[in-house]
Amino acid sequence: MDTAAFNRLLDVLRTATPRDEIILEEVPAPQKLATFSFAFTADVTNGLVGDAQDDIATGRFVLLHEPGGQDTWDGEFRCVTFVSADVDAAMQEDPLLPEVGWNWLLASLEKSGCAYNSPSGTVTRVSSASFGKLSPRNNESEIEIRASWTPVISSGADIGQTLLSHVMSWCNLIAEISFLPPVIDGVSSIKTPRR
User: Is the CA virtual torsion 47, 52, 56, 60 positive or negative?
Assistant: First the structure.
């Protein structure tokens, strides 16, 4: 794939339209990991305005492409992600939280019909306590998922649409980790403009 073909592929990825609560933004991608790269960030807020507004989840999705592939990827493309979300203290203490977080990732890929191989990653629980001048703040707990996988692109398949389904599965993961309520079929909502 040459630069022009990769740019056409990016035009397809830019059509990603996640649910309204997820603000998707194209950002500069890392340049030294592969010949071609592309990145999105996503933010989910608590829906309040002004000083009361706060992010409840954030994420980053990077698509890497190396013509000819890399040995560790088992393919020419690699999806890399990081997501982080607030959790309550009881959930943070649950010893099964890392396994649940990893299963959220795999389930989001399967729900979107994404074929993949060579998944790898970590799930981390983060707990912060504030002291001194920060002591009025509440203690905070988060879950962080860092993962990568190789999208399987079937012979004759539209590469752009295949990779778009991986972007949308990542958006589904962001929704899951944010504990957003399910979207009900047939119910429309006002779209938020992309930044």
Answer: positive
Which residues neighbour 36 within 8 Å (Cβ) at sequence distance 6 or greater? 1, 3, 6, 64, 65, 66
Phi, psi torsion values for 121, nearest 5 degrees: 165, -175
Q: How many other C-beta atoms can be found within 10 angstroms of the C-beta atom of residue 120?
A: 11
What would the two tokens of residue 122 be? 């970590």
Contacts of 155 (CB under 8 A, 6+ apart): none
**pLDDT at residue 189 greater than cutoff 80:** no
What pTM did the predictor assign? 0.84
Four-point Cα dihedral 44, 49, 53, 59, nearest 10:
20
User: Can you tell me the distance from the alpha carbon of 22 to that of 1, in angstroms, rounded to the nearest whole number?
Assistant: 31
Segment 10-34 mean pLDDT: 91
